[in-house]
């Protein structure tokens, strides 16, 4: 691919976590959770700059142990609370580098809470967004048929249930279902200009199908991750 773009990779890892306290530094399979994502990023040959964005000096210190990882700033508190959206975190990083005279075509978001990425997944995502000339890319996994939104219901306060989908869209048998997918959180790639306009996913969005993953938000998720480390299977 000629004229390859400049890609800024951001690994966001804040200090606080309500579901699993201190999870980014907590040992999973003998190493800090964040290390899985750092190692995946380092393996990718097309990331121009890899930076960890954190409000925690301990996280930044561990990140500095890895060659090729930058920790150019301490994330400001207003972007480090649990309700701060990812777009603000990414935009802060983009602005920082822009002030240093560095401009990027794309931003790659790698969340430490999705630690298990297959080898070359990030490379594949970069190739796909370049080939499709998309504005954004998100890795996705197929929703099992039994959980397909076509068969999902919402419940009223008096416990009546109603289909989530419009009646004309409903199907009666599995063979008629249209495949549905969910964002698995492993890789996002977004044009920098969208980030600067406050948009995380917009324009032409491409999905890259990958294996199901674990997003670690709760203690139950952590236990699933530990089981994956022990048995090599997601249950």
Automatic annotation (TrEMBL):
- GO terms assigned for molecular function: N-acylneuraminate cytidylyltransferase activity
Keyword Nucleotidyltransferase belongs to the record: yes
Keyword annotations from UniProtKB, A to Z: Nucleotidyltransferase, Transferase
InterPro entries given in the database record: CMP-NeuNAc_synthase, Cytidylyl_trans, Nucleotide-diphossugar_trans
Does the keyword Cell membrane belong to this entry? Answer: no
Under Gene3D superfamilies, the record lists: Spore Coat Polysaccharide Biosynthesis Protein SpsA, Chain A (3.90.550.10)
Q: Which domain of life is it from?
A: Bacteria
The record's listing under Pfam families reads: CTP_transf_3
Quote the protein name from its UniProt record: Acylneuraminate cytidylyltransferase family protein
Q: What is the lineage of its organism?
A: Bacteria, Pseudomonadati, Bacteroidota, Cytophagia, Cytophagales
